[in-house]
């Protein structure tokens, strides 16, 4: 039964009223309380939200709560006394899931009262989520013996305070940290012997990540190039690495990641501003099986060398799947279609190395750039194990909106480039593909426009 239905039933039945007072899941938000949003009546929405939450919690016995979620958007700058009172009622012994997402001015964040987490209350919490709060007393919370999932978003907490909290959360398995701008050094203690997943996104002042968690298997990072240490990293199998602003992300990944996570098997790289070619380097990804590179910049420099990505293929002797995505395709000033220099598609080999285990290659946003054609020809000629080659001139047919049967929209420039790419495939690629390889060429349809 939905919370609103349970509340309505409690109004007409004493038996339902008694069950409502022990209702185990309290999910409180403007949406769940069916308060209509209207920008012209913000103060009225705020008063109505306070009134309804007050009424619900006053009629609840405070017993049997297993999950509590409070999202205050769009009610800005709620007085802390309201929230303090609600938390005192809702956080009861036996609670397992807690979420608090505040909405207000970022310079005056709500200060989460760690006093509500007494020993008997905090001992049962398995999932803990804070957003847009201050958490400066984190280190004084005490032992969170059951906590397995921790998410902090836009929370004011220092690295030292967070380290103290983590040291008291030895059962932790998943940790998501995003937009926490007070942290300069993130240190994960070796006491977290069960930590499996670590995600760190958008912490602008962060300069170093040091993890000593012995069983970490998945690491995701989005931000500037910083110093990263994952300890022995013997269990790290998946790495997602995204540079939204700083150039040189692929350079960093190619030269540093083999040392940071030497046993990675799945690697996803994403960058918005790539201005250098990928270097050849001696370090290798010896166990890498899946590699995905996403290039998001809307306009690449005319001299960008896609063929330099061969460096990643040469460094990955166990690679089975390679995916290259041009997230925002557009007209290429370095199109091979407009090159008058004869058969310029023949690459000047960076390496004679063969890719003996590579079976599946997909390039989305495939374009007519000379270096893109050279990369494709290199893969065809150096990969005897190749089974499937997908050249997708759209933004990614595999990522279309399947539920509504709609493709990702292409700009007019991207549609022009897609036609050039189709001609380039016919002219330079199709005749080189062995009969044993399944070549799939995907072109824009009416739903891409």
Automatic annotation (TrEMBL):
Family matches, as SUPFAM superfamilies: L domain-like
The protein, known as: At1g61320/AtMIF1 LRR domain-containing protein
Lineage: Eukaryota, Viridiplantae, Streptophyta, Embryophyta, Tracheophyta
Domain At1g61320/AtMIF1 LRR: 56-446
Organism expressing this protein natively: Urochloa decumbens
Gene3D superfamilies from the UniProt entry: Ribonuclease Inhibitor
Stored Pfam families: LRR_At1g61320_AtMIF1
